[in-house]
Amino acid sequence: MTKISTNEIDIVKSEKSRINDVDFDNLVFGRTFTDHMFYCDYVDGEWQQPKIVPYQPITIEPSARVFHYGQAVFEGMKGYKDDNGDAWLFRPNDNFERINKSAARLAIPEFPKEYFFEGLTTLLNMDKAWIKKGKGNSLYIRPFVFATEPAISASPANNYRFMIICSPAKAYYTAKLRVLFAEKYSRSANGGVGFAKAAGNYAAQFYPTNLANKKGYQQIIWTDANTHEYLEEAGTMNIFFRVNDTLITAPTSDRILDGITRKSVIQVAEDHNLKVEVRPVSVKEIKEAAANGSLKEIFGAGTAAVISPIAAFEHGGDVFELPELDNSYALQIKDHILNIQHNLSEDKHGWRFKV
Amino acid sequence: MTKISTNEIDIVKSEKSRINDVDFDNLVFGRTFTDHMFYCDYVDGEWQQPKIVPYQPITIEPSARVFHYGQAVFEGMKGYKDDNGDAWLFRPNDNFERINKSAARLAIPEFPKEYFFEGLTTLLNMDKAWIKKGKGNSLYIRPFVFATEPAISASPANNYRFMIICSPAKAYYTAKLRVLFAEKYSRSANGGVGFAKAAGNYAAQFYPTNLANKKGYQQIIWTDANTHEYLEEAGTMNIFFRVNDTLITAPTSDRILDGITRKSVIQVAEDHNLKVEVRPVSVKEIKEAAANGSLKEIFGAGTAAVISPIAAFEHGGDVFELPELDNSYALQIKDHILNIQHNLSEDKHGWRFKV
């Protein structure tokens, strides 16, 4: 495996930090970027010299394949700062492995592990001041890779750019969500790329989500494309249902993202001796459970939102409002995960990674 | 509707044409671009001043949504030159309508018709020398639009760029193709974006196509994601099967592109009094027809390739070689379409458009 050390990253520091221009109390998600960015180009069959430079626009041919064929994948991860000022990541090796799994499905060359971790930690140490202390504060980290080769034939590119950019973040969703169960539109096909963080998976959801927004729903819970009878995921989140005292979530598949927050929720629930079932979840059973009062909670799980409680859902014109609970599993599990992320509690599964 | 005239396009001419550096006899598809490009930015809810400038790299934020969420659609069209030196397009209004149909599905604002046609014809007249006379020569024209807004939240962008770039082309496929019928991987889902020329549809095909390439097949004929029993399209082409003297092709749907060459083939076949059936085509019937000798031809139809005859297919380990025919429908229809495109024959359906 390729080995690099920090002094092998070509570094150009920004002359002056922009951090004092930023209102950290009023951040809009994903619009403010830190002082530096990491990048590495794939040319002539090899990843070249990795670089860290001031955050800035890039120059790219209009014929670059990413604009035409969507050959691009990404990851979402977060950095946290504890009360001592140490910075932490959460299960970063899972993000590393997943970006390469996504890349392989889109015929993008895999990125070397040493480059990923050395690039990530060097960048985060340079921009450490942008990670603010306190639960609810984090640095959203976006590794991504895209096809740069200037040639518009419909085949995998020969050239790519891998980048990491970082954006300080507050909580992604502030209010409880209202969601629509999909009945017509679909997110992914059997044998498709739904399990990958492929760029095209996201744009495909925007139009149906706009329609849902107009009806007063912020997100769609996607169902299987074939029958629309089974609840799969929410596009930026996996989905959990609590029926009585059992948490239920769909198994991962080639249609459903293997979410890192999803599997952390399952583990934390088991650590709390909660009953968890990973199995197909039908629209029918969730509507029946909502009608008879056994459906206690629905929540989304994802890196950006961590845990997003859901207040209501609609399907087939039927609207179900979920109760307010004293003993919410969502809040209990969210608190547990946030405490691990912010180095406030024991980390018995070794999920924290010191930057 | 917004109206513009040529003198409202902001034009910067290249100082010196690159045309004399180009070997027109040895063009690789999609790698050489003409002297100029057209672009128009969508900002503040409006398409701004359209521009034509020398073909050059663009500058874009790494946080532009196209890199992360694949919010991008495109068209493929061709310009032809007749013996008098006049330049022609083929059914360009269909490309215009389709790019906006694709855009709508990806929550991208529609592009105004006048901007499209005025931009296209002005650009083509400026770069007319790049369209070479003779059947087999064409100028491949690539209109495309992508999300430029620098914000990595997973929602539709507020800013976009529409562009047209042009690339001189020889025939796209030179030899007859060998194809694999898909059994495991899929191109699109019911309720998805398969009908749109969405960027992400293409990257999703690269890995399965790489696997097919390794088995000696250049393309995959995609089947329905649910059962893999019905033949749909080839990703860059629609597909026609000739069984005895009947041409059969799948109906368009939300999974299958409404190809302009596809519908031209259907019309030309009818003009030649050939029997055409637009209906679901099963893998089973095509294998049986191949086995009993009634399958005469398979060919692809698309803008880049026009008509691509197929020499053989594999499904489930069974390989079928197709016969060489004296009276190939594929070649007959291809010649008919090329003659219309190059202004060599009557254009009774009004498909030619003078630039």
Automatic annotation (TrEMBL), chains A, B:
At the top level, the lineage of the source is: Bacteria
UniProt keyword Amino-acid biosynthesis present:
yes
Alphabetically list the UniProt keywords: Amino-acid biosynthesis, Aminotransferase, Branched-chain amino acid biosynthesis, Pyridoxal phosphate, Transferase
Q: To which protein family does this belong? A: Belongs to the class-IV pyridoxal-phosphate-dependent aminotransferase family.
Functionally, this protein is described as follows: Acts on leucine, isoleucine and valine.
Q: This chain belongs to which protein, by name?
A: Branched-chain-amino-acid aminotransferase
**Coiled-coil ranges per UniProt:** none
The record ties this protein, via SUPFAM superfamilies, to: D-aminoacid aminotransferase-like PLP-dependent enzymes (SSF56752)
